[in-house]
Design brief:
By secondary structure, the protein is an alpha/beta fold. The protein is built from 13 helices and 24 strands. The chain has three domains: about 180 residues, FAD/NAD(P)-binding domain, CATH 3.50.50.60; about 200 residues, 3-Layer(bba) Sandwich (FAD/NAD(P)-binding domain); about 45 residues, no CATH class. Strands 7-6-5-2-1-8-20 form a seven-stranded mixed beta sheet, covered by helices on one side. Helix 9 links the parallel strand 12 and strand 13. The protein starts with a strand and ends in a 31-residue tail after the last helix. The protein binds flavin-adenine dinucleotide.
Length: about 450
């Protein structure tokens, strides 16, 4: 009888689980199916590079079909599960639904941005978690500069030249650093903007930035960013957002057209529909081997799972990082193999060995195996690490090429916001809305016209 292993989610956890299953389970007696809503894995640590225009968006993703030769990829959205009947409910691309039977199920659906009930946040802020958000941020920055350049009133122009990031974890800090670096490079092309200057603000509710790394490294990073003119406001919260302002707990109302929300993640909403036990944060409760509480044949890993953390004596859950998701993916595959008679089920024992925070401009901070790095050596280490980790030789070479081209020639300033969202034929031949085809036309909040069913995860259309 062929064993049927189904993996829900093809990000860091799911991808490495599939890859390991291909190695440890015999092809003739096992079928591995990976269900994912897009046909690639997003390499999130490189998302700031895509937002800042240093990396081609297609070079920060890993096409699943290219890298997983033995796994059956099923493109669709997981919408539910029946653990008694051992089926996973999948909404297919054509809108129909199917129940996929499984012998063993690995849940790895990841997380989404965690928003708070802050007035105007959901309507006016943008997240920084997915590729379309990174591309929209880059386009918005360019549209803002174009809009500002066309304005005569410096007060009005200031709104378009002020950028507020909320949340100073590595996603927020790296995202802000890359975009600010990009904007600083572009200034020579926008004389009015250059004369007026920009304002970049990082708001953090906690007392310090980057709680993921040691305080002295975080201090170094903070000093570096401040030396570039970035304002870092710790112990400060965002109180309200409008289309043209951000109100802070300090009482300041910052005129701005761009608020980026990077203040934490929560498990993907579909987790609540899988009928599995969750903790207070909504993550799936597992034991140390990543088997879901009360389930014999369901496993959970990555951001969606509350896997007990060996670094905290298994008293708290692992942090939501790619490092953990990768190791959990590899081990859960071996545990699944063990539960069907190949080897022994083992507990998760990985403890973080290093952290990199790339701040652009060839500056970074890093901590690896107890050694602290800062400045250019840390930046070099971070890039080497990502090239080593990026799956596939072709992808590694593409990364190298992008980085070297950027070092030699700088970044491109074209705003291709309508790429993948072409005007309808009627529009293109004269009956359309020309304002949507020009840059800097409106508030910067409007999205380009989209076909509601045909937009893929990387913002291109099928
Ligand atoms: C900007 C940024 C930078 C980061 N930098 C770092 C870093 O430097 N180091 C680090 O360790 N971590 C970093 N992280 C965190 C890291 O990305 C996550 O911890 C990691 O991706 C979690 O892996 P995962 O497999 O649980 O989820 P993901 O990698 O998010 O994968 C989940 C997958 O499931 C798919 N999916 C979701 N719902 C469904 C559904 N209903 N049906 C089908 N498919 C679905 C998604 O499309 C995705 O492919 C960063 C995160 C961000 C946002």
């Amino acid at each position: 009888m062929a064993w049927n292993v189904v993996i829900a989610g093809g990000g860091f956890g799911g991808f490495y689980a599939a890859r390991t299953l291909e190695k440890v389970l015999p092809r003739e007696s096992t079928k591995v199916t990976l269900v994912n809503d897009v046909n690639f894995m997003l390499y999130t640590p490189l998302l700031p590079g895509a937002a800042g225009g240093a990396l081609e968006p297609r070079h920060v993703v890993v096409p699943l079909r290219e890298e997983l030769k033995e796994t059956q990829l099923r493109l669709g959205s997981v919408v539910g599960a029946d653990s008694e009947g051992r089926t996973l409910r999948v909404e297919n691309l054509d809108g129909s639904c199917s129940d996929l039977p499984y012998d063993e199920l690995i849940v790895a659906v990841g997380s989404v941005s965690r928003t708070l009930p802050i007035p105007g946040l959901a309507e006016h802020a943008i997240g920084f978690k997915a590729l379309p958000e990174a591309i929209e941020l880059r386009n918005r920055l360019l549209r803002s500069l174009e809009t500002a350049e066309a304005l005569d009133d410096p007060v009005e122009r200031a709104q378009w030249l002020t950028f507020v990031f909320v949340g100073a974890g590595y996603a927020g800090l790296e995202g802000l650093a890359e975009l600010q670096d990009f904007a600083a490079d572009l200034m020579q092309l926008y004389p009015k903007c250059r004369t007026q200057g920009m304002r970049w603000i990082l708001v953090e509710a906690k007392e310090r930035v980057m709680t993921e790394i040691q305080p002295d490294l975080a201090d170094f990073g903070m000093r570096e960013l401040r030396s570039r003119g970035i304002e870092i406001m710790t112990s400060t919260t965002l109180d309200a957002v409008t289309a043209s302002s951000a109100s802070l707990s300090t009482g300041e109302v910052v005129p701005t057209r761009t608020v980026v929300w990077t203040a934490g993640v929560k498990p993907h909403p579909v987790v609540a529909d899988l009928g599995l036990e969750t903790d207070r944060g909504g993550r799936i409760v597992t034991d140390r081997t990543m088997r879901v509480a009360g389930q014999q044949h369901v496993w959970a890993i990555g951001d969606a799972a509350a896997v007990p953390d060996p670094a905290q004596d298994y008293r708290a859950s692992c942090p939501p990082t790619a490092q953990h998701a990768i190791r959990q993916g590899r081990l859960v595959a071996r545990n699944v193999a063990a539960s069907i008679g190949r080897g022994k089920v083992k507990p998760f024992t990985y403890k973080t060995r290093g952290v990199f925070v790339d701040m652009g401009q060839q500056e970074a901070v890093a901590s690896t195996m107890g050694i602290k790095w800062r400045g250019r050596p840390a930046w070099f280490l971070a890039r080497t690490y990502h090239i080593a980790l990026m799956p596939g030789t072709k992808r590694k070479l593409r990364l190298l090429a992008d980085w070297n081209v950027q070092l030699l020639f700088g970044r491109d300033a074209s705003e291709l916001g309508r790429l993948g969202h072409p005007p309808r034929l009627a529009e293109a031949s004269g009956g359309g809305t020309p304002s949507q085809q020009t840059v800097g036309s409106g508030s910067g909040d409007e999205a380009p016209a989209q076909d509601p069913v045909a937009v893929t995860g990387d913002g291109t259309s099928r």
